[in-house]
């Protein structure tokens, strides 16, 4: 009898220790700092697999106006506006930053987006990092609202140009993954395509001067079924075609820089190659840069290559090089 009791006690102790160890391990994982911005993230995470991010740590070397209600007070999605601590006398160009996350996840103040904004602002830009309509539960249809939101950000900048001390004729955009798709939509779509809403601030143009697309899915019928439509490709091919920037390529499109890694296991590099082919066929100004061995999801400083000189030069040319009238041409 004593032997049985002793064995039972020992077994209970082992089980208790295992439970405590598992709980401690889970706690450590959930409280770990945010992942490096260049680490790979799932494009369409489920609640059980979504990464846990620490609260944003905003930089102190630039001025940040957080949670600006650019879509109106009735929308929970907001923007962060970054500007130099010491504003020059002349008006600055502006750049919209659009986060990724498969149209289901992501945030304006994750490490990747903060990396982009804090690298661009010291180069002489005002940056606006936006949140936009995301899928929150099964059955939600978030497209084309995400496109409407991105275009509303451009109009908001023009409306607030005087207060922000920016030039409303010099606005660019950079987006990563899902944000890359939206950046391409801003560069390529025109009012005749039906994405320009009257509210908010419909009196202003949503045209941009240039766009940078980092590893965005741009030819959706050759990608996969997407939850933002709440329909499969077989059920609604017309939606997938409408959500594909490749279908809006035209000669007078805003100049584009497209960047993609060869080791991208989430969005195949063939997606950017398809956009390159469509823009080449249309005769539009653009450049495709392939980064050997780069995975999906990286900021301006992946270990494979420092992309800051490339991006800086692109924006310098198209936002500071006398191209200010381009947006007005596109808007007509």
Offer a few descriptive terms.
single chain; 332 residues; alpha/beta; Rossmann fold; 8-stranded mixed beta sheet; 8 strands; 33% helix; 16% strand; globular; disordered N terminus; disordered C terminus
- The tally of domains stands at 1
Mean pLDDT: 86
Span from first to last CA?
Answer: 92 Å
> How are helices and strands ordered from N to C?
HEEEHEHHEHEHEHEHH
Percent strand: 15-25%
Query: Number of helical segments?
Result: 9
Uncertain runs are 1-49, 323-332
CATH class annotation: Alpha Beta
Helix content: 25-40%
Taken from the alpha-carbon principal axes, the silhouette is globular
Main sheet summary: 8 strands, mixed
Compile the SSE list and pairings.
Layout: H1 2-30, E1 62-68, E2 79-84, E3 92-98, H2 111-120, E4 126-130, H3 145-159, H4 161-164, E5 166-176, H5 178-188, E6 210-214, H6 237-242, E7 256-261, H7 269-282, E8 286-291, H8 308-320, H9 326-331
Parallel strand pairs: 3-4, 3-5, 5-6, 6-7, 7-8
Antiparallel strand pairs: 1-2, 2-4
Characterise the protein shown here.
The chain is α/β, with parallel strands linked by helices. It has one domain: Alpha/Beta hydrolase fold, catalytic domain (Rossmann fold, 3-Layer(aba) Sandwich), CATH 3.40.50. It is 33% helix and 16% strand. It contains nine helices and eight strands. It has helices at residues 2-30, 111-120, 145-159, 161-164, 178-188, 237-242, 269-282, 308-320, 326-331, and strands at residues 62-68, 79-84, 92-98, 126-130, 166-176, 210-214, 256-261, 286-291. An eight-stranded mixed β-sheet has the order 1-2-4-3-5-6-7-8, sandwiched between helices. Helix 3 packs across helix 5. 44% of the residues are buried. Mean pLDDT is 86; it is low at 1-49 and 323-332.
């Amino acid at each position: 009898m004593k032997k049985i009791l002793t064995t039972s006690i020992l077994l209970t102790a082992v089980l208790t220790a295992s439970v405590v160890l598992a709980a401690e391990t889970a706690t450590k994982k959930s409280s770990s700092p945010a992942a490096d911005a260049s680490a790979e993230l799932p494009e369409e995470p489920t609640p059980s697999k979504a990464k846990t991010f620490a609260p944003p740590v905003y930089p102190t070397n630039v001025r940040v106006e957080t949670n600006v209600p650019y879509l109106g007070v009735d929308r929970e999605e907001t923007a962060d506006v970054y500007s130099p601590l010491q504003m020059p006398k002349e008006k600055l160009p502006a750049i919209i930053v659009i986060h990724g996350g498969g149209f289901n996840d992501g945030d304006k103040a994750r490490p990747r987006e903060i990396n982009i904004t804090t690298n661009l602002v010291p180069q002489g830009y005002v940056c606006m990092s936006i949140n936009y309509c995301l899928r929150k539960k099964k059955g939600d249809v978030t497209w084309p609202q995400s496109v409407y939101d991105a275009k509303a950000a451009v109009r908001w900048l023009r409306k607030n140009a005087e207060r922000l001390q920016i030039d409303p004729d010099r606005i660019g955009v950079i987006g990563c993954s899902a944000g890359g798709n939206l950046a391409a939509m801003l560069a390529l779509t025109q009012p005749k395509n039906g994405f320009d809403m009257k509210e908010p601030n419909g009196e202003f143009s949503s045209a941009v001067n240039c766009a940078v697309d980092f590893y965005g899915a741009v030819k959706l019928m050759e990608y996969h079924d997407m939850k933002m439509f709440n329909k499969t490709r077989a059920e609604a091919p017309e939606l997938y075609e409408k959500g594909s920037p490749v279908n809006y390529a035209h000669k007078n499109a805003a100049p584009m820089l497209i960047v993609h890694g060869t080791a991208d296991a989430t969005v195949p590099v063939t997606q950017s190659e398809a956009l390159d082919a469509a823009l080449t066929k249309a005769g539009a100004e653009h450049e495709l840069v392939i980064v050997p061995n780069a995975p999906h999801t990286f900021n301006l400083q992946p270990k494979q290559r420092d992309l800051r000189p490339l991006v800086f030069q692109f924006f310098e040319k198209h936002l500071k090089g006398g191209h200010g009238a381009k947006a007005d041409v596109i808007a007509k």
